[in-house]
Amino acid sequence: MLENWHDVNGLIGNSLIYFDRNDQQWHQSWIDTNGSSLALAGGFIGGVLTLSGTKPNTGELHEIQWRPLKLGRVEQIWRMSLDNGATWTPRFRGIYYAVDQQN
């Protein structure tokens, strides 16, 4: 899945989510217009897709989870840790749903 995004400060970027048959893991790669990147990897734990990775040159540990909700919706929770997972700071929460293109 290819995602094109922009934040409230004007930063623009892309992410690519894919399943790698070689390592049997899900991956997400992020890049933005500032040249910042983030690579995450992981899999399903208890029905929740959980990907994590460390941002280069910062030591920031990032974790993103997607969990199914009712009515075909999906919740995304993104959090970050500066102490290797001892404590977490929320970064983003989103609810995704399909839009009926016929209405």
What would you note in describing this structure?
By secondary structure, the chain is mainly beta. The chain has one domain. It has strands at residues 2-6, 12-20, 25-32, 37-45, 48-54, 61-68, 74-81, 89-96. The protein has an 8-stranded antiparallel sheet, with no helix packed on it. A hairpin with a 7-residue loop joins strand 7 (74-81) and strand 8. The chain is globular, with a radius of gyration of 15 Å. The mean pLDDT is 93.
SSE blueprint:
Layout: E1 2-6, E2 12-20, E3 25-32, E4 37-45, E5 48-54, E6 61-68, E7 74-81, E8 89-96
Antiparallel strand pairs: 1-2, 2-3, 3-4, 4-5, 5-6, 6-7, 7-8
User: What's the count of strands?
Assistant: 8
Spatial order of the strands forming the largest sheet: 1-2-3-4-5-6-7-8
As for the number of domains, it is: 1
β content, as a range? over 45%
Q: What is the string of helix and strand elements?
A: EEEEEEEE
Q: Please state the CA-atom Rg, rounded to the nearest Å.
A: 15 Å
Percent in helix? under 10%
Low-confidence stretches: none
Shape field? globular
Main sheet: strands, sense, barrel: 8 strands, antiparallel
